């Protein structure tokens, strides 16, 4: 990279991120490892790019693309900082702990085992099917060893979406010829438009790369004889077909490749396994409820929406309002939980009632571990945001719900709160005004250039939602992708070790 980085070890960036080291460089970007000062123990990867009039659009497109994606083999992007006066832009995303496939191959002597190659191939097919399953399909376009991370448990993560793009129906050629020589499909360099079949070529190049110990990534005359004896015999024609010059001569989609791999390595099993759809979100939809002041019904609203969401899928409610909040224990004392407690023992942190799982505020800095699990929705009661990191959790949630007063004489309070918080209201925000008049709702909506304002009707019992409240919540969750996981598992926030933390 010909531009010097503004970040270095020991520097505190944006008052929040402590830079510890640089972990990658290339082209017009650096990637730094940073520790989160507001969420102790949390690590992020910060991608620093120098943007110009020609590259800013690409960076913003990468940010918007990553924000829309959610798959266990893809990193999340959690923040995007547009270019400063010197053209430096920043993406804050999950830090993936592990080594790249390229580094792994360099450190290994000899050819990778056929079992491991097949395992990695199926993991890559999972994420390719997810990307290609979008409408229009998302084409990664740069499958190569340095863009694939291997965790300590041999799980693959696909990183760096710098040249990914949505497939353009009717297009005949790519605007830019991008990709990595040796791994990019021929059509990426002229004569056609890159599409899902281009990624299948990249998959074939990676399989050949692994099968030859990193020596080859392009099919050559006599390659089948070279591979014979080093990999499963049935894998050789699969690689050859993936690497054909013309896209129409390759497999038609990821499922077809998965079917071709079925039974390889197990000659007694001739059944064809179906590639399970991976378009479901692997993380729950996060609903954050935050009040601008005490006594406005923030917890009441969070409990009501939890009950409503539990009808749509597995739902959890978490009391994050304050360390000494009595709400969790009050609810716990109201219900009959089949569990015995020894005298003086702290009640368990989790219980289930009426289809909703209830949990209390975790230890400081431990919020992330509560966001993993087999749930469709997680509702966070943030109270008035009195703990460190509350505003960030609110802003990053999928459905941020802000509760303000509906009284005419307190409407200015919301404007003042916004100024003090430093938050910029977003189109996904929902602002609830309890018992507000139509005039009050219209007045607040006129102030909000983004987001939507609602008057909250009277609902005396938050555990029995019906009528106007039900219609309101239906509007709030409208537009959330249907591919969110809909599992009904009883496990509460089960920690999954994907080495993203």
From TrEMBL:
Residues that coordinate or bind ATP: 47
UniProtKB keywords: ATP-binding, Kinase, Nucleotide-binding, Serine/threonine-protein kinase, Transferase
Transmembrane segments: none
Pfam families: Pkinase
One Gene Ontology MF term: ATP binding
InterPro entries hit by this protein: Kinase-like_dom_sf, Prot_kinase_dom, Protein_kinase_ATP_BS, Ser/Thr_kinase_AS
Reactions this protein catalyses: L-threonyl-[protein] + ATP = O-phospho-L-threonyl-[protein] + ADP + H(+); L-seryl-[protein] + ATP = O-phospho-L-seryl-[protein] + ADP + H(+)
E.C. number: 2.7.11.1
EC top class, as a word: transferase
UniProt-recorded name of the protein: non-specific serine/threonine protein kinase
Species of provenance: Paenibacillus wynnii
């Amino acid at each position: 990279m010909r531009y010097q980085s503004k970040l270095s070890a020991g520097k505190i960036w944006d008052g929040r991120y402590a830079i510890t080291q640089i972990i990658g460089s290339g082209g017009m970007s650096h990637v730094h490892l940073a520790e989160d000062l507001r969420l102790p123990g949390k690590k992020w990867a910060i991608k620093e790019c120098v943007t110009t009039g020609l590259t800013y659009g690409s960076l913003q497109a990468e940010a918007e693309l990553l924000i829309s994606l959610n798959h266990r083999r893809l990193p999340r992007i959690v923040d995007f900082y547009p270019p400063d006066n010197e053209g430096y832009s920043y993406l804050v995303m999950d830090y993936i702990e592990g080594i790249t496939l390229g580094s792994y191959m360099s450190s290994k002597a000899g050819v990778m085992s056929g079992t491991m190659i097949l395992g990695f191939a199926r993991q890559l097919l999972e994420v390719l099917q997810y990307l290609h399953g979008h409408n229009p399909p998302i084409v990664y376009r740069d499958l190569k060893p340095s863009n694939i991370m291997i965790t300590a448990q041999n799980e693959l993560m696909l990183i760096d979406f710098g040249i990914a793009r949505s497939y353009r129906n009717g297009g005949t050629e790519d605007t830019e010829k991008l990709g990595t020589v040796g791994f990019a499909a021929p059509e990426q360099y002229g004569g056609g438009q890159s599409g899902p079949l281009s990624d299948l070529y990249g998959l074939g190049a990676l399989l050949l790369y692994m099968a030859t110990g990193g020596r080859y990534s392009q099919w050559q005359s006599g390659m089948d004889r070279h591979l014979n004896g080093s990999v499963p015999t049935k894998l050789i024609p699969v690689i050859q077909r993936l690497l054909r010059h013309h896209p129409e001569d390759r497999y038609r989609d990821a499922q077809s490749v998965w079917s071709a791999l079925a039974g390889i390595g197990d000659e007694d099993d001739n059944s064809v396994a179906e590639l399970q759809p991976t378009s479901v979100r692997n993380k729950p939809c996060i609903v954050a409820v935050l009040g601008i002041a005490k006594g406005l019904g923030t917890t009441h609203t969070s409990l009501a929406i939890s009950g409503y969401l539990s009808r749509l899928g597995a739902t959890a409610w978490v009391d994050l309002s304050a360390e000494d909040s009595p709400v969790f224990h009050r609810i716990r004392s109201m219900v009959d939980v089949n569990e015995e407690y020894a005298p003086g023992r702290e009640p368990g942190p989790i219980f289930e009632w009426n289809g909703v799982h209830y949990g209390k505020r975790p230890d400081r800095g431990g919020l992330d571990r509560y966001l993993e699990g087999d749930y469709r929705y997680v509702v966070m009661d943030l109270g008035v945001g009195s703990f460190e990191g509350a505003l960030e959790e609110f802003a990053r949630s999928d459905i941020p719900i802000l509760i303000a007063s509906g009284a005419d004489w307190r409407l200015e309070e919301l404007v003042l709160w916004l100024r003090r918080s430093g938050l910029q209201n977003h189109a996904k925000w929902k602002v609830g005004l309890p018992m507000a008049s139509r005039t009050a709702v219209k007045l607040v909506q006129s102030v909000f250039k983004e987001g939507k304002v609602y008057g909250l009707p009277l609902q005396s019992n938050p555990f029995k939602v019906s009528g106007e409240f039900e219609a309101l919540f239906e509007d709030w969750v409208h537009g959330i992708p249907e591919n969110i996981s809909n599992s009904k598992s009883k496990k509460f926030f089960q920690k999954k070790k994907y080495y993203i933390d």
